[in-house]
Design goal:
This protein has about 300 residues and is α+β, with helices and mostly antiparallel strands. The protein has two domains: about 120 residues, no CATH class; about 120 residues, no CATH class. About 20% of the residues lie in helices and about 35% in strands. It has a five-stranded antiparallel sheet with strand order 1-2-11-12-13, with helices on one face. It has a three-stranded antiparallel sheet with strand order 3-10-5, with no helix packed on it. The longest helix is centred in the N-terminal third of the chain and has 54 residues. The chain is elongated. It starts with 12 loop residues before the first helix and ends with a strand. The relative contact order is 0.18.
């Protein structure tokens, strides 16, 4: 005889429903703790990214403003946003006048109000300094660098080539710039221009600046962008939020909802503070940052 078969076992409908209910309760319980934590982490990441973008934008603008040629920062602020333009300096020094640090008339001295083609500076430019495509500015106390041109102006024409060599500084020994060339005398840099330049006004600190082409930052609220422009020619026409300059454009940041610029004086061509603010938004997260940069426009 055969042994009786055991009864097949499985889940009843009631057991399956009960299991589903229990799993649902457990899932809802865990969700109460996990979902807020995940949402908070995502919000934190979004805010951190916005803060990082805003800080980078403000730091980059502040850097260009701080190295700008004195009296070259100019601002246009409208309901559409702002445009801030400046001319970066890449180097500079104090030019020679007769009786200063063994400077004598002639090739060592810079003539003010008369055409001159060469002069010494008191010291040396930075190591590896390349004068190609650079221009010189002397005595710009009123922002005239934007309006003046030619060989009778505060800035040399773009067509005037600059050559830098080493002068003995009145000593007798030649060598690397900055090394001794005699008693109380060191070798210094000598500037030669391919065409005579008449700088109309002297500098109160006898400073000569080496400049590049202008730089502008344009914040357009409608487009939600902050853009940096560079590599364009000096122009009397000032950029505006809706009329940016030419040259090369590079997006600094997007997602801009608000931006502003203000100055502590009526004109930026005086000693002043420039206050910048920018607001960014992403995924319902908003950040607003401020920065304040001091301008020393004394020449």
């Amino acid at each position: 005889m055969h042994a009786p078969l055991s009864r097949a076992r499985g889940f009843t409908l009631m057991e399956m429903v009960l299991a589903i209910v229990i799993l649902g309760i457990l899932g809802a319980t865990f969700g109460m703790f996990i979902v807020p934590a995940v949402s908070a982490h995502q919000a934190l990441q979004s805010r951190a990214a916005l803060i990082d973008s805003a800080e980078i934008a403000l730091r980059r603008m502040a850097r260009d403003i701080r190295i700008a040629l004195p009296n070259s920062v100019r601002v246009s602020s409208t309901v559409d946003g702002f445009a801030i333009e400046m001319i970066p300096t890449v180097d500079g020094g104090r030019y020679c006048v007769t009786g200063d640090a063994n400077c004598t008339a002639g090739a060592q001295e810079l003539l003010i109000g008369s055409s001159d083609t060469d002069f010494d500076i008191l010291g040396c430019f930075q190591s590896g300094f390349n004068p190609a495509n650079k221009r010189l500015v002397v005595g710009d106390s009123t922002g005239a660098v934007y309006s003046a041109g030619g060989t009778n102006a505060v800035v040399t024409p773009a067509s005037t080539a600059i050559t830098v060599s080493v002068s003995t500084g009145g000593g007798a020994t030649s060598g690397a710039c900055g090394t001794s060339s005699g008693a109380s005398t060191t070798n210094r840099h000598h500037i030669a221009l391919s065409a005579g330049q008449t700088f109309p006004n002297s500098s109160s600190r006898r400073r000569v600046f080496v400049i590049e082409t202008p730089v502008a930052y344009v914040c357009n609220k409608s487009a939600g962008t902050l853009t940096r422009y560079s590599g364009y020619a000096i122009s009397a026409t000032q950029p505006t939020p809706l009329s940016p300059p030419g040259g090369t454009s590079a997006l600094v940041t997007d997602k801009v909802t608000d931006c502003s610029v203000s100055t502590s004086t009526a004109t930026v061509q005086t000693q002043s503070f420039v206050t910048l603010s920018i607001s960014l938004v992403n995924s319902n997260e908003t950040v607003k940052l401020f920065d304040q940069i001091q301008l020393d426009n004394s020449v």
